[in-house]
Amino acid sequence: MKLSLKFKIISLFIILLVVILLGLIKGSVKLSLSDLLLNENRDILYLRLSRIFLAILTGAGLAVSGIALQAILRNPLAEPYLLGTSSGAGLGAVLAIIIGLQSIYLPLAAFLGAALTIILVYNLARQGNKVPVQSLILSGVIVSITLSGIVVFLISFSGNEALHGVMWWLWGSLQVYDFKLLFIISFLVILGILLIFIFSQDLNAISIGEEEATHLGINTETIKKILFFTTSFITAGLVCICGIIGFVGLIIPHIMRFIFGANHRILIPTTCLAGAIFMILCDMFSRALFSPLEIPIGVITAIIGTPVFIILLKMKQKIK
Amino acid sequence: MEINNLCGGYGKEIIIKELSFKIKEGDLFGIIGPNGSGKSTLLRLMSRVLTPQGGNILLEGIDINQMKLKEFAKKVAFVPQETLINFSFSVEDIVLMGRIPHLRRLQFETKNDFLIAEESLRLTDTFYLKDKEIENLSAGERQRVIIAKALAQQPKLLFLDEPTSHLDIGHQIQILDLLKKLNRQNNLTIVMVLHDLNLASAYCDRLVLLNNGAIFQEGTPEEVLTYQSIEAVYKTVVLVNENPLSHKPNVILVPTDKQWKPN
Hints:
Chain A is mainly α. Chain A has helices spanning 3-25, 33-36, 42-72, 85-99, 106-125, 133-157, 160-171, 179-198, 200-207, 210-215, 220-242, 248-260, 264-288, 297-319. Chain A has one domain: ABC transporter involved in vitamin B12 uptake, BtuC, CATH 1.10.3470.10.
C-alpha cells in the first residue's frame, strides 16, 4: 500500500474519532465530556451514542449502496433511492398510518412496502433471465414516480396528523425510537456492506463493462442480481428506521472517488468511514443549529452536501 | 480451437448458421466480411458472451461452454472495439484487473501478479502511463492499455473485435505491429475481426470471409482476397493487385463512375 494512501486512511479514522467526540458533546444541552460520564447524565450519553451509532450505520450503508449501484448500473447519477425502494417504503408507511396501525408497526409496513417495490421493479426490468441495466433504471424511476404520486394523493385525503407523520419519512431523522429494531437493522446493514465488499473486485470489472467482466471470468448477471437485492435491502432497512435521507448515497461515493480513485477494494472501506463522518456531522447540525428545534436531517445533507460537492468538482476540473 | 456446426445469435434470431472451421495454435487469424455478416456475433459466441444454439466450440478438445467461466478466462482474453470507462481507474488498476481470473475472491495481488502486469505494460509500451487515469488517455493509448489488460490474463488465445476501427492509420499500424510481435515472439494465438481488407491481408496468416452468417471462403489471404469473392460478398467492384512491399493481395476500391460499362 502506498504511503499517501495509508496517510489518507489514517486521517479519515482520526476525523471519525474527532467527529464522534464532537457529536457527543454538542446537542440541545451542551455538556463537556467529563460531565457526560457522570451518572446523572447517563441517559443523555446513551441517547447520543445511539444516534451516533445510527448515523454511522446510515452513512456507511447508504454511501456503499450508492457505490455498488453506480458501478453495476454504470451510471454516476445512481443512488440508493433511484430504484424505488424509498417510495415503496413511504407508501407502506402512509398506508399503515391511514389504516390506523399502531406506530410500532410502521417500520414493518415500510419495510414490506419497500420489499414489494423491489420485487416489482426487478420483475418489470427482467427480460428472460437477464436484467439489462437500462430497463432496471427505467422501471425503477417509473415505479418510484408512480408510488410517490400515490403517497401524495393519499396524504391530500387524510388529516394533518398523517401529514406530520409522513413529513418525518420524507426528510429523515436519526432519533432512535426502538432499540430492538435498531439491532435488527444494523445486523442487516452490516451484513449487506460486507457482502458488497466481498464483490468489490467484481464491481471493478463490471464498472468497465458487462461484457468485459464476462471476459474476466465473472458471472455478470448473477452478481448484478445479488447486488441489486443487497443494496435494495440495505436501503429498505435504513428507510424504515430513519426515513429518507438524500444526497449521502450520491455525493459521498463521488467525493471518495475524487480522493481515492475508482478501485472498489479501497473505495468501499473508505466510503464507509466518510459516510459515517458526514452523517454524524449532519446530525450534529440538525440537533444543535436551532436547538431545541430539530431540523430534518435530509435538509442538512442537501444543504451541506451540495456545496461541498461543487467545490470538489471545480477543484478536480482545475487540476485537469 | 475447433468450431463445429456452430449456430447462434441473439434470442430467436439466428445469425451464425452451421459454421465450422479450425484455428491452429500460433495462428494470426482474421475474420472479415461485410456489415451484418455475423463477424462480431461469431466472436461473441467464441468468447462465451453468447451461448450457441447448436454445434459446439472445442478448446484443446474441451467444449468451452462446459468449462468454468473463470477457467476459460485464464485461457482466452478479449479486446473490444472500444472501451469507454466512466470511472477514474488508473492504468495500473485496469491492467491488474487482467489478473482477476487467477485470483480467489478477496485475494489481493501477489508480487508475481504485479510483475505480470508490469511485463504486460512494457510489452505494449504503456509502462510510462502506469499512474495515469484511463479516462485521460487518447484512443490509441487506451487501446494499448486494454491489450495490456488482456495480456495480463496470460491467455493462450486472444480475441480482438475490430481493434483498430477507432484509430488513425498511425495508431492502426502501431496496434497491428504489436499484435504481430506478440504472435511471433510470445507464440500467442490471435483471432481478430477486421474491417480493413488490406490490413487483414498484410497481417493475418489465415482469413475467413463471412457472408450471411456462413463461411464464403477460408484460407490464406491470397486464396480469400480475390476480386471474385470480394465482389460476390461485398456487392461492389474492386481491383486486386499485389502489394509491392508485402507481396500480399492489395484491394483497391473502384468508384461507380470509374467502372467500365459495356455500351
